[in-house]
């Protein structure tokens, strides 16, 4: 009997008693589908979209760029400036033989540097991945725009790195207003993109008073409250401005405010108070940032690039110091301290002040381009004695200030591209993309 009941339930279609149980089963099945499908959509929806996106092959560089700049699905913010260096066997992405923009003093391989591993690292933020610089992406983002580097020779070092990385897409043409190497302009015709370099190592009005001075590196009069019109008079039309300053402030300086001497740094002049380099450094950044915030027609984004420490060991730069390490530090092996820490903190403080003023203005934007931690960990990236011929008479015989090209400074353009992506999203009012 029990067997017959089972047979009626599952096997005999002619028995009308089966109809009600079957209808019940079907109803239950439909209800389950209706209830479960919406709940499962978030699990499968993104995969469906991903398959659909992948099925469309890019037919141009622009299509490829658009796909690569789609927001990712990370759920948290990431500090791209906090991390470690990890091996990157694919690097470098250009060589000293393929890029003519490398300054002689940073052309380490040309002058016989025996090791090459210093070129084969990438920056890995602690909580995400930082994409390697994509020249097509970069040029598409800056299409029709302008970028200026304002500062010292390390800033120029950065610009030359950018030119070399972009050379995989296009070489720029020289559109400089002058033949002076300290004020160069380069234009990328296919993208109508122009970048310029403005030499201003003190960022404010300055003049060399004595070519020798106490340390045989010159004595400079620094007008801490006056704009350097060599760059401020030309900057208003730029979309992006990267300012930097650091190593020149170690030189002997006499400080002026309102046209009068207020003190100095290691000037060794009678009746002039030594206010230290920190006083001049703070005032100079305050004035430079004030210039950008106060220029009526400047509507660009200002990036304050933080101090990149030097790595002299076994002596100062003029006392036989060198930098012969061949691999990066780990973050646990060194730390920012002493002078480097003081200069860095001054920049952070002045950045925060300028950012608040910019927000009140409404049309100004100030961002922090924080390279300090990453570069503190790269004692292996400097030219040292491989920036010139062995017997050449140069001021900085062992260069532990600038950076070999190719080399770790190329990562600054990884940072730059990621920040430009963020700026573009902010400008369009979209949801900020996250890096994974």
TrEMBL record:
The chain crosses the membrane at residues 23-44. Belongs to the PC-esterase family. TBL subfamily. GO terms for cellular component: Golgi apparatus; membrane. Residues 130-419 form the Trichome birefringence-like C-terminal domain. InterPro entries: TBL, TBL_C, TBL_N. It comes from Cicer arietinum. Residues 76-129 form the Trichome birefringence-like N-terminal domain. Pfam families: PC-Esterase, PMR5N. This is Protein trichome birefringence-like 19. It is a single-pass membrane protein. Coiled coil: none annotated. Its main location: membrane. The keyword Membrane applies. Keywords: Membrane, Signal-anchor, Transmembrane, Transmembrane helix. It is found in: Membrane. One of its GO terms (molecular function) is O-acetyltransferase activity.
């Amino acid at each position: 009997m029990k067997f017959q009941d089972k047979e009626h339930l599952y096997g005999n279609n002619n028995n009308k008693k089966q109809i009600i149980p079957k209808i019940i089963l079907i109803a239950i099945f439909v209800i389950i589908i209706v209830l479960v499908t919406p709940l499962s959509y978030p699990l499968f929806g993104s995969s469906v979209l991903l398959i659909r996106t992948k099925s469309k092959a890019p037919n141009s560089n622009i299509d490829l760029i658009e796909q690569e700049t789609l927001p990712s699905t990370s759920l948290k913010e990431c500090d791209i400036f906090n991390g470690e260096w990890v091996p990157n066997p694919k690097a470098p992405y250009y060589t000293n033989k393929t890029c003519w923009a490398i300054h002689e003093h940073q052309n380490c391989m040309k002058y016989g540097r025996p090791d090459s591993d210093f070129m084969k690292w990438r920056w890995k933020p602690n909580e995400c991945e930082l994409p390697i610089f994509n020249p097509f992406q970069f040029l598409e983002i800056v299409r029709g725009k302008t970028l200026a580097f304002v500062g010292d020779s390390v800033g120029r070092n950065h610009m030359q790195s950018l030119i070399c990385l972009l050379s995989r897409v296009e070489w720029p043409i020289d559109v400089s207003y002058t033949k002076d190497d300290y004020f160069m302009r380069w234009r990328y015709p296919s993208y109508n993109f122009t970048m310029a370099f403005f030499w201003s190592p003190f960022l404010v009005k300055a003049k060399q008073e004595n070519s020798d001075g106490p340390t045989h590196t010159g004595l400079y009069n620094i007008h801490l409250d006056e704009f350097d019109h060599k760059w401020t008079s030309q900057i208003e039309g730029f979309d992006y401005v990267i300012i930097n300053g650091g190593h020149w402030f170690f030189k002997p300086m006499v400080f002026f405010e309102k046209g009068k001497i207020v003190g100095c740094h290691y000037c060794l002049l009678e009746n002039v108070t030594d206010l230290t380099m920190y006083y001049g450094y703070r005032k100079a950044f305050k004035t430079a940032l004030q210039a950008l915030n106060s220029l009526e027609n400047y509507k660009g984004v200002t990036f304050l690039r933080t101090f990149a420490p030097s790595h002299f060991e076994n002596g100062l730069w003029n006392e036989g110091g060198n930098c012969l390490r061949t691999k990066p530090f780990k973050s646990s092996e060194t730390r920012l301290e002493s002078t480097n820490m003081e200069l860095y903190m001054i920049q952070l403080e002045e950045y925060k002040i300028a950012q608040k003023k910019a927000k009140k203005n409404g049309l100004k934007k100030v961002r922090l381009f924080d390279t300090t931690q990453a570069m503190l960990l790269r004692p292996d990236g400097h030219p040292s004695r491989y920036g010139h011929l062995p017997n050449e008479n140069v001021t900085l015989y062992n260069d532990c200030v600038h950076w070999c090209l190719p080399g770790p400074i190329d990562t600054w353009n990884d940072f730059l591209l990621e920040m430009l992506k963020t700026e573009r999203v902010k400008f369009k009012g979209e949801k900020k993309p996250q890096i994974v």
